[in-house]
Backbone:
């Protein structure tokens, strides 16, 4: 066990887990989902899902991890439920799949940082060319993977925690600075209005599904990343309070990302519906309009921020299969890191090619009733983030409520929170894992699978 290590204190854990949660999902994906999902109505649903559906899952995942001090697969076995091991393995595979494409987008972010520093603002108009150029984006993906390898191979406290302690405060300072700057732009208020004044007629099944997927993805739930980080937490930490802090940090930073982005977009009268390209296509032009040095500074800061956010998340994604190899197969950490990173990179090659380089992968699948085809990378995202993660959430909460049972979960939560029994938190978590999460998540997942993959129009 000597190899496992652990976080040195509560702050270390909360920062690392918040680092996992805060990522491309908050700064790249959240604003464009808001843009496509009709603005504030999407934001309202996302917040609701984070606190009502995702929070009990977060508490449960940390508890399972801390109780067993093991990776997701080993955890179920250690609790005495070998049959559930498959759920842990599935989570590990899902994390590996997510990292395979997440690293590609993280590479774009870092590539854009370099372009901004070089003053190449026209990169936005050449986004298609950029992602199609397999040598460039492949190179950036390798560089990004090397950063991740560097941190994870240094272990939990010396690598993951230390990186989070440096990167997270920097990230928060940068995002606040950029929000303040964005507020001074012309038409900033129009952006804020779009972002914060809801129009509930915009809500439909597709936006509900995206908001749900986004809540789970954004909080790194449903696949065992938080079980893994929980396994490095000390017995006298208050799990419920830590989960609340992590959730608030994640939601807070997603919120700030929107406050920064929409004024940028509206200041140029641009379309909020830019989808995945909202940041990569639209923003460089905005930075260019700031002129010379200011554009380089603000543009560089923005993409550096995005890269930092992505890095603390790729680190947590890599840590999941690495902890599995270390715990279950006694592989030495550094070796495990290299081995897993190479496998992840190879699995990610189709995603690298799915953005213009390969026609087949770019136009991979056309959903029934859809106007245009979906590329392989987005398709993997739909399966992994929007389907598997909520399914993971259903199974984890059902496991805790009906197999492991409330008494055992509560006992773990009481360690570090002696007054947990009888508290509001106890009732909230209990109701969440027994009824609300399994029920609501099941309904939403079934409806969304029917609609997305089988074209059944539900409403
Ligand atoms: N939460 C990260 C983000 O919002 O970008 C993505 C992520 C990281 C998902 C780790 C899942 C995970 F286990």
Residues:
């Amino acid at each position: 066990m000597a190899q496992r290590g652990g976080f040195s204190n509560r702050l270390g854990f909360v920062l690392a887990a918040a680092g996992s949660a805060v990522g491309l999902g908050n700064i790249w994906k959240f604003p464009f989902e808001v843009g496509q999902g009709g603005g504030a109505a999407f934001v309202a649903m996302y917040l609701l899902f984070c606190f009502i559906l995702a929070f009990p899952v977060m508490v449960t995942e940390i508890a399972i991890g801390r109780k067993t001090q093991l990776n997701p697969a080993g955890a179920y076995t250690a609790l005495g439920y070998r049959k559930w091991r498959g759920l842990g393995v599935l989570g590990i595979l899902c994390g590996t799949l997510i990292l395979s494409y997440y690293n590609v987008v993280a590479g774009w972010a870092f590539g854009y940082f370099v372009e901004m520093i070089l003053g190449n603002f026209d990169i936005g108009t050449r986004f298609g060319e950029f992602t199609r150029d397999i040598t460039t984006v492949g190179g950036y993906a390798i560089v990004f993977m090397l950063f991740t390898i560097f941190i994870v191979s240094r272990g939990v406290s010396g690598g993951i925690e230390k990186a989070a302690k440096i990167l997270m405060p920097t990230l928060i300072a940068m995002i606040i600075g950029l929000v303040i700057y964005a507020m001074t732009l012309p038409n900033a208020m129009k952006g804020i209005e779009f972002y914060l004044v809801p129009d509930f007629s915009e809500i439909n099944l597709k936006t509900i599904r995206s908001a749900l997927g986004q809540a789970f993805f954004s909080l790194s739930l449903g696949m065992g990343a938080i079980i893994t980080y929980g396994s490095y937490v000390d017995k006298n930490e208050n799990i419920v309070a830590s989960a609340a802090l992590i959730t608030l940090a994640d939601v807070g930073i997603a919120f700030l990302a929107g406050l920064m982005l929409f004024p940028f977009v509206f200041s140029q009268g641009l379309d909020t519906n830019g989808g995945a390209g909202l940041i990569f296509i639209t923003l460089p032009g905005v930075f260019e309009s700031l002129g010379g040095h200011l554009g380089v500074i603000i543009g560089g800061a923005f993409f550096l921020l995005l890269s930092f956010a992505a890095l603390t998340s790729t680190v947590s994604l890599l840590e999941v299969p690495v902890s599995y190899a270390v715990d279950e197969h006694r592989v030495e950490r550094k070796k495990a890191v290299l081995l897993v990173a190479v496998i992840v990179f190879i699995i990610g090659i189709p995603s690298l090619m799915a953005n213009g380089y390969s026609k087949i992968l770019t136009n991979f699948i056309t959903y029934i009733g859809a106007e245009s085809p979906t590329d392989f990378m987005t398709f993997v995202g739909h399966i992994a983030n929007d389907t598997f993660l909520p399914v993971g959430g259903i199974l984890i909460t059902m496991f805790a409520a009906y197999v492991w049972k409330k008494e055992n979960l509560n006992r773990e939560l009481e360690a570090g929170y002696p007054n947990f029994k009888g508290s509001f938190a106890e009732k909230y978590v209990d109701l969440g894992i027994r009824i609300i999460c399994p029920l609501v998540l099941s309904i939403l997942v079934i409806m969304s699978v029917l609609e997305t993959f089988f074209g059944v129009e539900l409403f």
